[in-house]
Structures are given as C-alpha cells and as structure tokens.
Amino acid sequence: MSDKPTLQRRSAGVLLHPTSLPGAHGIGDIGHEAFAFANFLAACGQSWWQMLPIGPVGQGHSPYFSLSAFAGNPLLISLDKLCKKGLLEPADLKPVRGQIRDRVHPASVERFKESRFTKAFEVFDRRNEPAESAAFDAFCQAQKDWLDDYSLYCAIKETHQGAAWTDWEPGLRARHPAALERARQALEGRIRYHRFLQFMFHTQWVELKEYCVSLGLGLIGDIPIFVAADSADVWSHPELFWLGEDGRPSAVAGVPPDYFSQKGQLWGNPLYRWDVMRADGFSWWIARFRSALARFDAVRLDHFIGFHNYWEIPAGAKDATGGRWVQAPGDEFFRAVLRAFGDPRGADGMPGGDASVEIIAEDLGSVTKEVASLRDRFEFPGMRILQFCFGKWDEKALPHNFPRRSVVYTGTHDNDTIVGWFHDPGLQSNVRTPEQVRVERENALKYLDSNGVDIHWDMIRAALKSPAHTAIILAQDLLGLGSEARMNLPGTLEGNWLWRLAPGALTPEIAGRLALMTGAYGRGPRRWTT
Q1: CB 166 within 8 A of CB 175
Q2: Is 312 designated active site?
Q3: What is the bridge-based pairing of β-strands 470-474 and 11-15?
Q4: What stretch of H or E contains 338?
Q5: Nearest in space to 460 (alpha carbons), one of 442, 475, 446, 440
Q6: Which of 129, 355, 429, 460 has the largest CB neighbor count within 10 A?
Q7: Is the overall model pTM greater than 0.85, yes or no?
Q8: Is 302 one of the catalytic residues?
C-alpha cells in the first residue's frame, strides 16, 4: 500500500477533468471510466489526479461559473451506478444518439440525463427503502447549511425557465421570509429532487475517493476564487458581495491585459465584501474549504493574486482595461482559514510544523513581490508552467531552477496543448507575435535538446526532471494532441470545456513510457514497509 501523497515530496500526476473521460452518455462521469483512469494512474506510478472545479456549471458551461460553491455537478453522476442500485433499468442506459465521442454536447446531455434522473428519483421515493432513506436524511441534515438554499434556488430557477435570480419577482429576489416559505411549500417535490441528486453525487464521489485512497492516489481539486453572479451563494448571501439594490454586481472581477488578451479578461463575477467577511471570521470561506477538503486531498487555489489585491472593473465595462487594483486581506484571511483546520501555519507566530492543509497557489499573472511574499509566508507551493519558460533565455526561469516548493505543469486548462503551443504561428490564441513564437520555439528546442518531433514527451521529461516537488501533466499532452484538444481559450465563451478522451487512447505504450520516466526521476509513490 502507498503512503498518502503529499505536495511536500517528489511526486507526479495527471490533470484530467471527469467530464473529459470516455463513456456512452455524452459526457464523462464518476462511474466505471473514472475508476479505470485511477487504475491507469496507479499503474504509471502517479500519485495525483488533478481536476477542475466539480460544481454544477452555469454560464458557458464553465466549471469556473458554477451555480454553487458547495454542490456537485449532477451531470457527473454515473447512470450505470444508478442502474446497479436498481434506480434505472438497463434499457435506460442506451447511449446518446448522434454524439461525437471526443466532444461533450451539453444541451443534449442535459436533456438525456435529466429524464433518467427524474425516473431514478421517482423509483427512490416510491420504494422508500429504510436504510437508503435514513442515509439520505442524514446527508440532508449534515449538509443543510448550504443544501437547503441550493435546492430551493434550483427549484425556483426552474419555475422561471432558468432566469437569473436577479430577474425573479421582488419577494423571492430579496428573500422575504413569506415568499420563501410559499416557494418551499409549492416546490417541495422539486426541492427534494435536487437534494436527491446531491445525495447521489455524494455517494458516488465517496466510492471513487475511497477507491483512489486504496491505490495510494490523491485527488487535487480546484477552488475558484470568485463565484458566479447567478449562483445560490450570491442569492443566499448577498451581504457578502458588492451588489446594487437590484442584486446585480456594482463592480466585477477580471484581470488586466495579459498573455491571453490585450484588453485583459472581463470575468464578470461579483466582488467580495471583505469587510463583512472579516467581521464573522471568514466563516463562509472556511465552510467552503471544509467542503473542498472533504472531497480532495489537496486544492489548487485559483487566482491566488486576488487574495492580496484584485482587479476591480466598473459594472457595465466593455473590457478589463479600465479596472484598478484593490487591497484584499491576504495574511489575515489565510491565518483564519488555516487555524480552523489546526494547521500550524495559521498561528500568529507562523510558520512551523507540518502542513495539515495542502494548498497550491495559482500564482500566475501580475505576481508582485508582495504576492510572492504572501505565498511564501504560508509555505504554499506556487505554479510553474513550462510554456511560459522560453520567451527569453533566463537561467532563473528555466525548469532546472524551479523551486522545490512548487508544482510544475506542462500546461493548464487555460493553455494550448504542448503540440498546439509549439505549432502556433502567433496572434491566434494569445498575444504572442510570430517573432516571439520563433524565439520561444528555438529556446525550447535548444534547452530540451530536441528536434521537435516528440516535443510533448520532451516537455514532459523536463517537467519530471525539474526540482519541483510536484509535476502535473495535462492528459492531452500525454497523447500529443494539438489545439483541437484545448480545454479553454480565456476571454471566449463558446466552444470551451468540451474535449473528451477517446476510448482506449491511453495505451499500454503511453502508460509504460510515463511509468519509466516517473520512476527514473524519483517521482514514484512510496510504499509501506513491514
């Protein structure tokens, strides 16, 4: 049996979101193929499976615009597992017709799964099996702090044909007690339905998590710094956000001009009222961390910069160029969060002792000395992206000089694949000019001692060889796929988050090659000794 993986010693893993897994129902899920992927990782000597946020998706089907910071995405529920529980019939599992295997088709998937979920819920309620019902009631009670508002939000949203909560009638929009009580009574069945979906997600997730533990495999989750304006969180806790009288954001989040866009990125998320959050000890955030760390062994904290200072953009702006930097309570915030988990880094005299909370700081973008100092004071590993290393020949930025306390990636969900990046002519998916592309390509080939034929494996080798404690490989890079397999293009709303792994794509040859490299560079899992 393997030791529990940790970010504090050499290890390796793969980044693949569950929606990208193969399967017959139009989208990857946490059923059989998830267990098979876990087996693949273990066979390759990997210690980590990293995912994107797993909440119910909202705008643009993005996992970073979730309807809830606490709920699981119902579309990840395995229909096969519902069938094994007797909640569906084998005939219900007939594959989605007309689906292209390497793409998610959100609209048809939602229709297909919704009809099966409805049937499974009806069977669940009708048979009223005592042990199952008791487990459901216990789950609802344990999660009521967020589940009650979330399930009510979903049920009301359905009656408004999916409209944002800011377009609901005034009583529901402003959460007047009488209006909420009327909705609870009128929508009791649908509220229970959404609680059922979260119970099924939780049950299946626990099964997957326990299986990964048995393989010595850790799960890395992702906590987006901001939440969607149209979410159960903003509706149920409007006091925590900068909103106007109509409930709409009075200022929104984003980033200034960067690698991906000359006009910056206008995300549109509402900004936090840090003064209000500070007053109650950041309780909402602590609950959010508690939920994430119950599901994952480590978490990537998205947009770490924003905990020191965030880019505030006036509501209604057309792009992000007119924003300004505003201070955030980084030190105070992280001390409060870590203290809540008994982590020694949360003590006023920090640091000290072994970390009990494993956090990766996504320190990309405008990283000032102050941001780096915040990261280092709490001993959070930062991120190093290989694609960003070769713009100029800077010894300090090259992979062999990465700090040990860091996580190296071939790329992230926002990057092109290695092959796509290598062949990009420039000015297509980012602000790199053709001349900058040429310089990067030449520097990369020189550093990697490569002819470019196997550029993805050359970059994987550089990641695994580096001093960084943790190395994470994008699944698309293991396969040597091009830009067609890119997960997301920042600043765009269409065509993202759809890529899927083809059945059988992760061949024994790939597994063997990855296992050999992982072991050769001292990243294989440790084993218990007796």
Answers
A1: no
A2: no
A3: parallel
A4: helix 330-340
A5: 475
A6: 460
A7: yes
A8: yes
